[in-house]
Design a protein that fits this description.
Elements (H helix, E strand, L loop, with lengths): L9 E7 L5 E7 L13 E7 L12 E5 L4 E10 L24 E10 L11 E7 L5 E10 L2 E12 L5 E6 L3 E8 L2 E9 L8 E2 L5
Antiparallel strand pairs: 1-2, 2-3, 3-4, 4-5, 5-6, 6-7, 7-8, 8-9, 9-10, 9-13, 10-11, 11-12
Length: about 210
């Protein structure tokens, strides 16, 4: 409002979808006279998965669309950790597998469009992230959509110390970055290609 004159309106709406997932809508009105739902309004919609105890996707974002037609879609599932001293994962087992504990969560994010939510060939990318029970990223992958499906174009793996600091990052191009931490500050880093120093840390290894 400027000098008592309304110059812009933003609408906010919150409701539950048929599956009980939360929906949040933000609309920038096309003009001060445009009502909520007007075809010219710039609308951003975020939809969440329904709440479900023990489900990795519970209450988390399922999809988010913005006015230019882009749509981000999320999928989550949890996995067990093998009984190894290093807690090293070599496969991503679903939580209904024998001995599964659900310590890790895999989040798949597809950057599609409202009209092509699963992606557009040679344009859409997909990101896969593995996190631990505290939400710390251990492994990330990037894919691009091709005519025959998604092809992986890069990945990185993080190793953490007991306090959750990233002490080593290994990348698919052969680069390795290492860091040392003192109290709450990073005291130094070093980078090299094609080598690594064995260490006893929480880590991810293998492929998805």
């Amino acid at each position: 409002m400027v000098l008592g004159v309304v110059v812009g309106i933003t609408y906010h709406a919150y409701y539950y979808a048929a599956d009980s997932g939360k929906v949040s809508v933000v609309e920038e009105a096309a003009s001060p006279a445009a009502e909520y739902g007007h075809a010219g309004n710039l609308r951003t919609v975020t939809v969440a998965y329904p709440r479900s105890d023990g489900d990795a996707s519970s209450d988390r974002t399922a999809a988010s669309s913005i006015p230019d037609g882009r749509l981000d879609s999320y999928a989550m599932n949890s996995a067990c950790t093998p009984r190894t001293a290093l807690r090293e994962i070599t496969t991503f087992a679903p939580t209904n597998a024998a001995g599964a504990t659900g310590d890790f969560v895999r989040v798949t994010l597809v950057h599609g469009t409202v009209t092509s939510p699963n992606g557009v060939v040679n344009k859409t990318t997909k990101e896969v992230t593995i996190t631990d029970r505290l939400g710390r990223a251990l492994f990330t992958e990037t894919y691009v959509m091709t005519a025959s499906g998604y092809a992986r174009i890069g990945w990185s793996a993080n190793e953490l110390d007991d306090l959750g600091h990233v002490v080593k990052v290994t990348r698919s191009n052969g680069m390795i970055e290492e860091a040392t931490w003192a109290v709450a500050a990073r005291s130094g880093t070093r980078m090299a290609a094609g080598w690594s120093t064995p260490t006893r840390m929480t880590r991810w290894s293998g492929t998805i």
